[in-house]
Amino acid sequence: MKVPSFSIAALYLLAIILVSSLLSSCLSTLTLTAQKTQLGDELLATSSDLINGKDTDLHSYVASFLKDHTQNEFSDTHVSNIVEMLRTGTLASASNGNLKFISTWKQDDKEEIKTKLETLLVLFPKSAKSLTQKAGQQKFMSSQELVELIVKANLDPTLVMGVPASSGEPDILRIGWGGSGLFSSVVEFEGEIYASSDVTGVWKFNGSGWDPLVEGLTNYDITGLLVHHNSLLAATKNQLLELRADNTWSPLGLELKTYRNTTLQLYSTSSSGVTCFAALQPFLGCIDKNGNVSKTPLSISKLKGVYFDKSDDYLFGFNGKKLYRINKSDGSQTLEYTFPTNILRIERLGASLGALVYTQKGIFELDSFASITIDLKNKSILNVLKDTTSAGNHLIALGSTWNAGLYKLTSTPEGLTIGEKVPISFDTSLPFRQWRKVMTKPIGMPHSVLGKIWFSDYRGIYGYDVRTNKIYEKSRDASNFVGTDIHIDADKLYITSMDNGLVSMPLGTPNEFTQIFPRRGSDWLLAGHTWSVNSNEQGIFATLSPWNLAQDYLLTADKENNFLNVQKIDDATNRSNAEAFWSHSYSRKLVVDEEILVYKDGSIGGLFKLKFTPRQNNNDIQETTSEKIFSTSNNRVYRALLKTDKYIVSYHIDDEQKLYFNDIGSKALVKTVNAPAGLWAFEIAYVDDELYLIGARGNAVIYKYVEEHNNFIEVLRAPSSSAFLALKKSPTNTLTIAGAVSWGGKASGSAMLKLSDESEWKDITCLLANESGVIDIEFTDDGQYVYLLQQVGSIIRLQTTKLSAFQGCIS
User: What PROSITE patterns does this protein's entry cite (predicted)?
Assistant: First the structure.
């Protein structure tokens, strides 16, 4: 995120001067930033018994702590500020990444603000970037003053403020919001925190945010992460991989089918160090402590969970209501028990109770299958969150999949007790949190991470802080959305995506988002997938497919981020349609000039024309202006729709693949042209008055249609990718970029670059956040920047002048 009003050149020069003058003090930086536990966290942990005591005792302890742990000079004013921030919970909030308190400093004296900020930078160096960004947004002080505070805290301004180094590489910025998609696990490995996703692979926590850790992943659909001896493993939906010393993933040689929430208890490790996995197939896969893998056939069709208890010779496995005892060596099994409701997890919370079986409606002893008496508050069990520290601050998730609550779970020799519900602090800077402020079912096998329970659900990453008895959202920039389209109008970037509605972002302040629609929880009836976004002088338009309605809608907003209304595109009564792509009919493309055109696929779809409608009578849903102007039997049009000066052109992927040309005025069909057999053009583009067909023919390919000779010429092919989905030429005519994807979560998408004075295409995939590929491309009007919408996870902004000098990725 860019801090407003900063001059990068001036900041960089100032930083060099200041860092040089204070070089001796910076020697302590290495020690400070390398600590696994930040000073602020250690201070919170060791002063908890004094917070409610005498001021003199707490003041004395803080002063002594700072003297023993840091080389920085702290005045009585600094110490008094720390004491106040301890008592008010400010330090606890900073520890959890909740920086809302900074906006409350507006009435404070400037010098007091500087003292507080400098103190927080010393105590929480891993959050330095977030702290300075937040302070910069409030405009408490000049950029020079911020840099001075960063240097006084023995930190590097060029890292904290994001000043680019002069490396000759393209200026790259990752844009996206944390969460909004399923995260499947959170684990600790060698003092660092890692999270997995079912669409974007693996993320590593850097203290203030998340960095993608995806190189070498064969698939971005991760069922879960685990630590096996001295290795971090990732279970994709079809195999196990290991993180190597060079931070790349490599297959272990164990292929097993697993799948996010279908696999409930992914693995269990025996006392001898053997880890076995629950597979959605008739096999038991295991890895011993030396890394040797085995795969034993089972007569059980699949397992949703496994658990080693007292013996290394056998383990328990479950599927649905049935619990099996499985011989590890030969895979033979016996049905041990059938519970009244489905099994969710087997876990030992404490030695006094032994292992317990958690089912949807009850908890049972594993040894005797006797029911544990416990008040579930008339709710269903969703998961149990285990505190692996000696404190035993366990949690239990109760409720429904899409509306869960977390409650304290206390283990005693007499049994289990469910306590009070734990409040949640959502990160409202994330756009979807404007209307989605509900916890969903926690996923996987949540447990302690660096002394706190970290966990994930369908929408984000969270941490439970015992000190404040509150759950804090940690999603930040672990961008997990599935994008569908981007569009630039004036000074804003507009983004549509699965499940997230319409979001805008000022081009001048990246990663500051506004949720245009849905606006609030009461918009849930129209919430769903947005597919395409475009604009004209009248406003911003997007196609919307609600989850709970069969019809598609045209969403209209003004250019000040105000939602105006929606109007129905069609009158469908059922979205399921055998002729549509993936058997569900959607309006994936709109074309906007003085009129609005939308193509919806499937036999219930067609080409629709609509008009702009201003907001009337304060109604969200306006009377429709939609008119179906053309249709075929199947309407197999994905996003391949555009207008030329003469035609409305669409590409139909049917038994025969054809281009359809409709008259731009009468809308009547003028002609059809048979395309090369097997060419699935998912998108079409009009570049330099020539028509390009963008899609797949065996693998990703782009063809040019030569109207004069009525033939097709192959322009570009990407053999490792599934399909091209985007092609765009810069407004300066200096370069062209093409984007391809791979289906099924595979890591073989690509982005290609061709300069106008060169004939060869260069691979620029290595500049992206991951290799899921690119589905849309937008240049700024001046051609200075290009925005690449990845299939999953993020938008990448590249500076075109430096991109022109880039030599291409090295295989």
Answer: PROKAR_LIPOPROTEIN
